[in-house]
Write a structure and sequence with these properties.
Blueprint (H helix, E strand, L loop, with lengths): L7 H11 L18 H7 L16 E4 L4 E9 L8 E6 L2 E9 L6 E2 L5 E7 L4 E7 L5 E7 L7 E6 L2 E4 L11 E5 L11 E5 L10 E5 L2 E4 L2 H25 L1
Antiparallel strand pairs: 1-14, 2-5, 2-6, 2-13, 3-4, 3-9, 6-7, 7-8, 9-10, 11-12, 12-13
């Protein structure tokens, strides 16, 4: 009979496996007269997003089954609102980028009616991006080759560029993500991304919703998760042999 007693190694393995993926980011909601990120999420159709909601803080992403994604700027609460560019970058060369959305039209909710689009063409292996205004007219069509279908998100604001991969920010998290809730208010594979351009960690300086994307676990995270499971199996096997 196996006695389910976990020694230090097994407990460490459980923790190791459980934390192999990105951890929660502490979002500051003490924003004074400005709405918090959770308030913006509610106004954007994701009403159940709160401090207890699981975050999806992946550094890299892929498009969904349609190989097409749309993005909308929901709000900008920063003095740098008129100097922002949101887009995607090549994981192998962060300077290789495609713009999707531009600056906010004012501090607060965005009212421009602009929607940004990102498409991946399997036949050419290239990404293409453009945006439309309220009349659905297309602007800014451009393309780039990232050497595959994986990309990261970036935000250039106030003369600085921040990345979804925290390692490119010197280890500082600049983007926090939330998946649409399952109560019918959001779409499947829709996410809300909140960006931080300063030091107060409110993550509502630039907030966009993005549809039809999915996170890509980093190879190192997958490896760590596998090692954690192996450690658990090894510890359980030792305990089984001890109790035979």
């Amino acid at each position: 009979m196996i006695k389910w007693f976990y020694g230090p190694a097994a407990v460490a393995a459980l923790v190791f496996a459980g934390t192999a993926f990105a951890s929660q980011i502490d979002v500051n909601t003490n924003t004074g007269n400005e709405p918090s990120l959770y308030d913006i999420a509610h106004d954007s159709g994701l009403p159940n997003v709160n401090s207890n909601s699981p975050q999806v803080n992946a550094g890299y992403w892929r498009l969904g089954l349609t190989n097409s994604s749309s993005s909308v700027l929901e709000a900008t609460w920063t003095s740098n609102y008129n100097s922002a560019t949101f887009g995607v970058y090549d994981p192998n060369d962060p300077s290789n980028r495609l713009n999707i959305l531009g600056a906010g039209t004012q501090i607060g909710p965005d009212v421009s009616g602009t929607t940004g689009y990102l498409k991946y063409h399997k036949s050419t292996g290239k990404f293409a991006s453009y945006y439309t205004d309220s009349s659905s007219k297309q602007y800014g069509l451009s393309s780039a080759d990232f050497g595959g279908d994986v990309f990261g998100y970036f935000l250039t604001i106030g003369g600085k560029t921040y990345y979804s991969d925290s390692k490119l920010n010197g280890g500082t998290d600049r983007m926090v993500g939330y998946e649409a809730s399952s109560d019918g208010k959001g779409l499947k594979n829709e996410y809300l991304f909140g960006w931080e351009d300063g030091t107060d960690n409110d993550y509502q300086d630039y907030v966009a919703t993005v549809e039809s994307v999915k996170p890509v676990p980093e190879p190192s995270s997958i490896a760590m998760f596998g090692v954690g499971l192996l450690m658990i199996g090894f510890a359980a096997r030792r305990l089984q042999k001890r109790d035979v």
